[in-house]
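sanity check this fold:
=====
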Amino acid sequence: MQNETVVSGDLKHNWGWLLGLGILFVIFGCIGLSMTAGLTVFSMFFLGVLMVIGGVSQIIDVFKSTHWKAVLWHALIAILYIFGGVVVIYDPLLASTMLTAMIAGMLIVIGITRFLMAITLRHQKGAGWLFFAGLIAILLGVEILAQWPWSGLWVIGLFIAVEMLVNGWTYIFIALGMRRR
C-alpha cells in the first residue's frame, strides 16, 4: 500500500510530464493517421532492422557458447532471423502484405473463439458483449481480407496510429485525474 502511495505521489507531482507525453502521442497518432502507408512501410523496415540486429546478436552468442549442446540450433535461429530481417528490409511491402493477411486471419479466429465463449457463457451476465466483440473481430478480419493485398499498405500503419492515439488519450486522462487528486 505504501509503495502505491509513493507511485501516486510521483504521478501527482509529475502529472504535467505525463500530460505532455499524452499530447505528444495524440499528435503522433494524428500524423500517423494521415500517412498510414508510410507508417506501414517504415514500421516494417524498422522490424527488419531489429530482426537483423537480433540475429547478429545471436551469432555473437553462438561463438561464445560453442560448448552448448544446442549451439547449432541457436545458430540456425540466428541465421533465420538475419535472413528474415533482410527479406523484410528488401521488400517491406511484401512483408506488410503477408503480415496483414496473418492479422486478418488471427482476427477471424479470435472472433470465432469469442462466439464460442459467448455460447458457453450465454447464461452469464455480459455474454452479449463477448458475442459483440467476436462479431467486430470477424468483421475487421473479413474487411481486411476483402481488400487484400492492398490492405497490406495501410492496416499496420492504421493499427499503430490508432494505438498511439489511444495511448495518448489514456495518458492525458490519467494525468488530469492525478492533477485533481
About this structure: Residues 36-64 form the longest helix (29 residues). The mean pLDDT is 87.
